[in-house]
Amino acid sequence: MPESNDKKGIIQHVAEVIIGELKLEDITADTFNPDMDLVDELGIDSMDLATIALVLQDEYKIVIDEDDYPKLKTIRLIADYIDEKLTAKS
Amino acid sequence: MTIKNKDSYEPDRPKFSELLANPEVKARWEKVRKYFFLRESTYDMSNRCNIRCDGCYYFEGEKQFAEENGSVEAWRNLMQAEKKRGITYVVLAGAEPSLVPQLLDVCYSEMPLGSIATNGFKKIPPSVGYKIHISVWGNDETSLRIRKAKNLLKKQIENYKNDSRAVFVYTFTKENIDEVNEVAAELIANNCKLTFNVFSSPVGYAGPLRHDEASLKRTRETMIALLNRYPKNVLFSVYNAVAHTHSKGLHDLYSCSYPRCNPSQDIGLGRSFRQYRTDLNWDRAVACCVPDTDCPDCRHYAAGSAVVTARLYRHVNNSASFKSWLDYVDTYLAVWVMGYEKGKNLCTVAIEPPPNAGS
Known about the structure:
The structure holds 2 protein chains of 2 kinds.
Chain A: H1 7-21, H2 46-60, H3 75-89
Helix pairs in contact in A: 1-2, 1-3
Chain B: H1 16-19, H2 23-33, E1 40-44, H3 72-84, E2 89-93, H4 101-110, E3 114-118, E4 131-136, H5 140-147, H6 152-160, E5 166-172, H7 180-189, E6 194-198, H8 213-229, H9 238-245, H10 250-254, H11 269-272, E7 275-276, H12 301-307, H13 319-336
Parallel strand pairs in B: 1-2, 1-7, 2-3, 3-4, 4-5, 5-6
Helix pairs in contact in B: 2-13, 3-4, 8-9
């Protein structure tokens, strides 16, 4: 579960989810560049992204619409997206 | 960033983690997700065929006029370039790949995962370790009439029985629905694996093979009956039957993600898929698995394998829907990936496809 819902905490948690779901080695949430292009640089595909979105959706109790998946290209963009959804909810 | 807020969080909807709490479901999810790295493209290998079938997609469209590049080195270079751009799975098709075994060998040596669509008349050497999909359109009498090929089923079985690469693909047309029973019995007697396709009209085709609502319904019933009768040999699920015999085609149901129908190049098939012609060129405007199909009538098994599989998100609304999706993906992998063994289907009731967000 995310420890905090401020932007830094969301970035940290998104990185942890990606590392866990994709079983990434040699990288930690602290060393994960939040601006790395997940598609071009990390090589994740639509199914990986869908899996990550489903996990994050559960944890933050938000809806991540599948039409929005293509926008979620970096950890920072994912965190911005979650932040906007949480703000809209509150 | 502008985001959609068209729907709100539904507390009654199960969490993804709750769906995975069922050990059987979790095990299947872990089994199939290992293959999420597959990224396909398709390749026409030759502009020749040793038979000529009514309604053949290859000879309906313009790609038949592309020049044939038979250079082993050109194909090796293409495969190496494809690997570099992230392709991990090749589908070798049109017109008849068995006529160019030297090209199949070079593709296999560069790209170890893939499949070949063949009429099965000429055996593909065992050195090519791809899945081999053998197209079956009926019994020998029907094959002679529709495909002008004598003793085709007999020859196909001779060539591929006891071959772990082989999956026989029975294409249901409006005219051959009942005939599948005798064909399936013969295939199963020879311990062959069988899956199903649904005839999808080429653009402009209005001939007798085209399905209507009644024939689709009968096809669905027949598929499910055969699945129940031969669960070890029939690679299929109830949800496969639903998705491919629905009155709506795959595009209407799931929003086809191939470039021909999908302008987005951000991620997924719209970004990586190409359909190469025999001259080793490709055209984004017509790129899909069977390019000359009339999109609204598309119910191809190949298209569904990519399009239904890609719609994970829509199938996590409830347990039956997610199990059905897992059955579909499990079937897809058993049909397309060497060494992947189909598990027992998790959902044996027919569920409606989820609402299409794109329509």
